[in-house]
Amino acid sequence: MITILGIVTIAAVCAVWFLKREWMQFVVGVAVAFPQTAGLIVLGNGFPLFYLAVVMIAVLSIPYLLFAIAAPDRVPAIDSRGLTVPDRLALALVAWAAVITIAGPRIFRGMRVFAPELGVDAQVTNMAMLQPSLGNLAQLGYLTFAVLFLLLSGRMFQVDRRILGTALWVSIVLAAVRIVAEPFWPRALLQNMPTFNYATPERLSGTFYEPSVLGLYLVAAAGYFVARLFAPSAGGRIPAVIALALVAIDFAMNESGTALLGLGVLGMLAAVFAFVRLAAAPRQRVRPLLVAGSVAAIGLVLTQLPLLVSLAAGSAEDKADSKSFVARTASNLRSLQITIESAGLGIGLGGNRPSSFFFLVLSCLGILGLGLLAALVVVALTRALRIAVASPAAWGLAGVLIAAIVAVPDLSMPVIWISLAACLFPWRPPQVEVENLRRRAYPIPVALAD
């Protein structure tokens, strides 16, 4: 059964494909703001909007690809790059995931695991036993579609930092809207994934099924929009300031330990990065506005330090004393044991679900899978940070991964993959932005300007 939003997604993808394909990244970005909303329901299982959009893009690409094979000189490509290092890493990740996901549950059948469908808290004293399931193939399918999206990005439609910005804008705006419109929130339309238990409205979860996922998007939005304040852009800084104000409002209502810890780690990472950059370029021109803003921010933190410490310590203490914290820690420790017991191979996607994204990848895909994914992320961050206009995508990706490592163990989360796409592939901003870059004398590659 196809849902209302599923129909809207298919119609939007088809319309944009034929009328104005450079807008495809905005359609995909909007879909990513609803990662736990079903576009299609088959046999009691929901298919998210993002993956429905990817399937439609792949289907629409088939005639184009066939014609390109038959007459390569007659088909203009958005990007004619060959198989790049990121492409090879992503394909290797899928290949290894396929091998271990099919073989792992059979080789290590009966191993004690935290089954994804049963929840962490209920399994601390009664863990499930590993066995092959449809969930293994489903998770492998999601990873395959996500990598397919990476391969199509930039080749079949334009991708730049705005795909991530669109997803974050829609997420934080709708979360703020839900604060004042909770009685009228369209639950039947948005909260329709059959296998999910959606959170109650006591804590803000926005368009997501639990507050921690909104917390992940808030950390990513903080990194993205703070970087927008310092990145060259024709749009000015006012939209970034408005977005950060919405992030602050959503954060106050979200009360998520994921957002609290994620923002703290991201802030420390940004401080270290800024210090290293300044130390490496001592002759760089210092902007008075940046200095004044930094002094004001440091002064605010110092004057309000007791209150901040009290809030952070109180939240951390509540988390540490909770049953949930004990269960999450136990699931992560068991995941480390699973990695050792499987000789570092992992047990396959869908075989184990701890509390942390890091331990999820390690226990399911093993050391090799974790290494391939880490290499892909490092390449993406390195490429994006080299170009000022793309740096917000890098900080958005960093925020996503930090929050996921804290408490969002989901490799199929669409925001991970659009963040990678925004960092990895060509950035082709509007010509006015290119001219703006030239006027400000930012060192950008010739390919970007062209």
Structure characterization notes:
The chain is mainly α. The chain is 66% helix and 3% strand. It contains 18 helices and 4 strands. The chain has helices spanning 4-19, 24-32, 49-70, 85-107, 134-152, 162-181, 187-190, 211-230, 238-254, 257-280, 288-303, 305-321, 323-341, 357-385, 391-407, 414-424, 431-439, 446-449; strands at residues 38-42, 45-48, 112-113, 128-129. A hairpin with a 2-residue loop joins strand 1 (38-42) and strand 2. The protein is globular, with a radius of gyration of 22 Å.
Main features:
450 residues; mainly alpha; two-stranded antiparallel ribbon; 4 strands; globular
Backbone structural class: mainly alpha
String of helices and strands? HHEEHHEEHHHHHHHHHHHHHH
User: Spans of 5+ residues with little confidence (pLDDT < 50)?
Assistant: 307-317, 428-450
Helix content: 55-70%
- Please report which band the strand proportion falls in: under 5%, 5-15%, 15-25%, 25-35%, 35-45% or over 45%: under 5%
Number of helices: 18
Distance between the termini: 45 Å
Total count of domains: 1
Main beta sheet: strand number and arrangement? 2 strands, antiparallel
